[in-house]
Design goal:
Elements lengths: L2 H14 L5 H15 L5 E7 L3 E9 L5 E3 L3 H9 L3 E3 L17 E9 L2 E10 L7 H16 L6
Antiparallel strand pairs: 1-2, 1-6, 2-3, 4-5, 5-6
Length: 153
Amino acid sequence: MSEQYRELSEQAEALVVGESDRIANAANISALLFNALQDVNWVGFYFYDGRELVVGPFQGKPACVRIALGRGVCGTAATTRQTQLVPDVHAFDGHIACDADSRSEIVVPLVHAGELIGVLDLDSPLPGRFDETDRAGLEAIAEIYLRTLGDRS
């Protein structure tokens, strides 16, 4: 993991330590990433409500409120439970354009104890903004977030 993501992971840990409220933690992690990462225009969470993804805490322009599973980059990440790294959103079949300025996107699925919780979504106005370093760093931060959920059984 890069030095930047190591530092961000430490900061994320410090923000969520001892806090179990998923909305509060998502809000702080969104703000942390939005303000620390260059060339991003949207950072936020979508939560799975049992039927579809519903927008949660985020930083950036107003967002699409609901996304069906399997639709767009977020819905694909939720369905496949695999991080989606998209260098050009216009080349992604079924892309949902919530912000016309977005050109690249990375979406990390949030799965806890085998249950889909939602996704962590980042957009950039630059094509090819996200890479494998971002994937590893953001997946690590997603894990920090998921650990705050504790045992949901």
